[in-house]
Amino acid sequence: MLRAVPYFIHESAVVDPPAEIGEGTKIWHFTHVQQGARLGQRCVLGQNVLVGPDVSIGDNVHIQNNVSVYAGVTLEDGVFVGPSAVFTNIRTPRSEFPRKDALVPTLVRRGASIGANSTIVCGHTIGRYALIGAGAVVTRDVPDHALVLGNPARLAGWVCACGLRLTGDPEAEAGARCPGCGRRYRRVPEGLAEVR
User: Fold this and answer.
1) Alpha-carbon gap, residue 105 to 108, rounded angstroms
2) Which of 28, 140, 149, 175 is the most exposed place for a label (fewest CB within 10 A)?
3) What is the pLDDT of the chain when averaged over all its residues?
């Protein structure tokens, strides 16, 4: 008797063994998952996505169409990557002088969202629940809950875990507040932390 596979892989997608695919994950048209990649549970990989060798992707990650997640990139749980976002993994690439042994790691922390057509230069950490605006070019670490925009990306405000822009001053005694869900935040060395 045939056993049902606990994930979905479109017939046009390619998954190179050994790759780990979590339960409930969906891999759509023309996507390529390379050997050693680890995808968590309930992920969605859109059309024409590349997941490089040994890449680690957490649970509930959504990667939209035309994104390449190269070796050296780690996406924690709940990350969203918008269409055509770009990750790099070598600081000084040359075709004539391959530097595959010089990969520079990039870490995208839990719940962060990366906007469409943005570029994440390797060697940086995107903080928890940070929001990278569409088209931004990230050239430095991004704090937890930061909203960054532009080229190069600069701090433009703060966002809640639910994604809405915070009101108020996170450095004031009252802190910053989400106009949607009501969560409150204060400034900490890593960025912002929720006040409980």
Assistant:
1) 10
2) 140
3) 96
